[in-house]
Amino acid sequence: MTELEKQIENEVVRYARARGIIAAKMTIPGQKGWPDHMFLAENETVLFIEFKRPGKAPYSIQEKRINKLRSRGYSVHVVDSASDGIWVIDQLIKRAVSKRILI
Question: Which of 3, 10, 90 shows the shortest CA–CA distance to 54?
Answer without folding.
Answer: 3
